[in-house]
């Protein structure tokens, strides 16, 4: 059964904390009409049915006379909960055995194991969150940098949806006026002032334009800036990558229990993530710029938002360097010219290279790395991004915005040309439909399935 069509009358249960984690405490989440009475039936302590919302109670979870664990139970009486239903969070000791027994016990008492994202789905279905806010919950949990965190938080708090809601309301108003005209079509009346409508459509159009434009930057902030380190074999690409990553690794490993598995080729500079593309290739010192590799390299470089081009003064002549730089310039992607191995450079070489205005580093001796980082930030020009601004980071939203825009163009055409009101109304409805897809005013089961099935169980 799909998530969206699952029975919302059931009381659902799932582990809300990370399964298999090492922490001291695990939290089991229960939500649904019967959540409180169901937990109460296995809880020994105060009568949970008689306690106020937003209170915490100590007691034991028992199966018959056997104590499974000593727990703390947090009560949320609907609609004052995340899901808007009665909800209970049981904090147990973090033992796989205890967690399984408690969940199984609750299932035997009548709860059902929650599907992925089902708590958040209920929050959405019960009006606690709109769709873009629900999606932001997933983003928030996945966020791994100050920037991605801030964007997700902003979206979850409704910044994005609020802006769209207001526009949608204005448009609904006009749609109904025009539809009213249809009822009087014999009489040739105009309830909807065409100039005002046009001004509104233009305003919406420009807001949507801005939102679509924010996607590129939003996406970069959310997923990281894709970077390619290019240069001939042996110029020091892998040494540089390691220098950048190692420093990071050292910082991260100071925090006990953190692993770097998922951020292997990423570094974080002042809250912005830089993601190195296909660095495995660099590691194997694969030749990335020799003739046969040129096409592949170009393809790779095109995915980058930033290229770090490394030169080695002990092997690269200035003419060859200039030639390569011209090639990168043709790609129209920001790039940083780096002369590596500055520990080996002679004064005359330095003078010769000066026309390129390069950054001198020594990847091996870790010289100039901080300046390089500053330059990376500088190049992606993110300093002018205000993460307080509403920003679109979700491809689904961008697509809906683009569809809205197409519909709005038709409306504008319809206002300026002799188009009958019913066509105008249809185009406005189309625009409303696509705007509604973002916040979930308009949904289909497929859409909901697609979104919520990507959540983890317990979310
Ligand atoms: P790649 O093929 O571009 O990845 O180059 P490597 O990172 O494998 O480096 C090639 C050689 O250059 C290795 O022997 C490195 O130790 C050396 N190397 C890299 N960076 C520097 C540097 O800044 N100074 C010096 N002296 N040697 C370097």
TrEMBL record:
Residues the entry annotates as binding GTP: 234-239, 253-259, 278-281
UniProt remark on cofactor binding: Binds 1 potassium ion per subunit.
PROSITE patterns: G_TRME
Subcellular location: Cytoplasm
Extent of the signal sequence: none
Highest taxon above the source species: Bacteria
The entry's keywords: Cytoplasm, GTP-binding, Hydrolase, Magnesium, Metal-binding, Nucleotide-binding, Potassium, tRNA processing
Family membership: Belongs to the TRAFAC class TrmE-Era-EngA-EngB-Septin-like GTPase superfamily. TrmE GTPase family.
Residues that hold K(+) according to the record: 234, 253, 255, 258
Primary location class: cytoplasm
EC number from the UniProt entry: 3.6.-.-
Biological role: Exhibits a very high intrinsic GTPase hydrolysis rate. Involved in the addition of a carboxymethylaminomethyl (cmnm) group at the wobble position (U34) of certain tRNAs, forming tRNA-cmnm(5)s(2)U34.
Protein name (database record): tRNA modification GTPase MnmE
Cofactor(s), names only, from the UniProt record: K(+)
Pfam families found in the cross-reference section: MMR_HSR1, MnmE_helical, TrmE_N
InterPro entries given in the database record: G_TrmE (IPR031168), GTP-bd (IPR006073), GTP-bd_TrmE_N (IPR018948), GTPase_MnmE (IPR004520), MnmE_dom2 (IPR027368), MnmE_helical (IPR025867), P-loop_NTPase (IPR027417), Small_GTP-bd (IPR005225)
Chain positions recorded as Mg(2+) binding sites: 238, 259
Residues covered by the TrmE-type G domain: 224-381
Complexes and interactors: Homodimer. Heterotetramer of two MnmE and two MnmG subunits.
EC category name: hydrolase
């Amino acid at each position: 059964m799909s998530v969206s069509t699952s029975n919302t009358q059931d009381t659902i249960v799932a582990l809300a904390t990370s399964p298999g984690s090492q922490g001291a405490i695990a939290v089991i989440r229960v939500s649904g009409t019967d959540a409180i009475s169901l937990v109460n039936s296995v809880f020994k302590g105060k009568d949970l049915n008689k306690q106020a919302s937003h209170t915490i109670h100590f007691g034991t979870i028992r199966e018959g006379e056997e104590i499974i664990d000593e727990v703390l139970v947090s009560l949320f009486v609907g609609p004052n909960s995340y899901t808007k239903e009665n909800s209970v969070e049981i904090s147990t000791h973090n033992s796989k055995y205890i967690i399984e027994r408690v969940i199984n016990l609750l299932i035997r008492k009548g709860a059902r194991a929650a599907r992925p994202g089902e708590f958040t789905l209920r929050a959405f279905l019960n009006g606690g969150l709109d769709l873009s806010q629900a999606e932001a919950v997933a983003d928030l949990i996945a966020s791994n940098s100050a920037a991605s965190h801030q964007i997700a938080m902003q979206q979850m708090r409704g910044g994005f949806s609020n802006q769209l809601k207001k526009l949608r309301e204005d448009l609904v108003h006009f749609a109904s006026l025009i539809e009213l005209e249809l009822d009087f079509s014999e009489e040739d009346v105009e309830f909807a002032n065409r100039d005002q409508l046009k001004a509104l459509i233009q305003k919406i159009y420009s807001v949507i334009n801005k939102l679509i434009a924010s996607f590129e930057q939003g996406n970069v902030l959310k997923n990281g800036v894709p970077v390619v380190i290019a240069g001939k074999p042996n110029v020091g690409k892998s040494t540089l990558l390691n220098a950048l990553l190692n420093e990071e690794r050292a910082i991260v490993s100071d925090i006990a229990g953190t692993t770097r598995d998922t951020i292997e080729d990423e570094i974080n500079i002042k809250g912005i993530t830089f993601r190195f593309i296909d660095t495995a290739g660099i590691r194997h010192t694969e030749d990335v710029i020799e003739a046969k590799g040129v096409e592949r390299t170009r393809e790779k470089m095109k995915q980058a938002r930033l290229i770090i081009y490394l030169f080695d003064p002990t092997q690269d002549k200035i003419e060859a360097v200039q030639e390569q730089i011209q090639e990168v310039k043709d790609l129209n992607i920001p790039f940083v010219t780096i002369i590596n191995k500055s520990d080996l450079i002679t004064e005359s070489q330095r003078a010769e290279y000066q026309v390129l205005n390069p950054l001198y580093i020594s990847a091996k001796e870790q010289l100039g790395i901080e300046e390089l980082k500053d330059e990376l930030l500088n190049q992606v020009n993110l300093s002018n991004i205000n993460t307080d601004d509403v920003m679109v980071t979700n491809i689904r939203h961008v697509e809906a915005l683009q569809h809205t825009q197409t519909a709005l163009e038709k409306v504008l055409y319809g206002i300026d040309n002799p188009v009958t009101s019913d066509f105008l109304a249809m185009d406005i409805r189309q625009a409303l439909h696509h705007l509604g897809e973002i916040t979930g005013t308009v949904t289909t089961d497929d859409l909901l399935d697609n979104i919520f099935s990507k959540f983890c169980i317990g979310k």
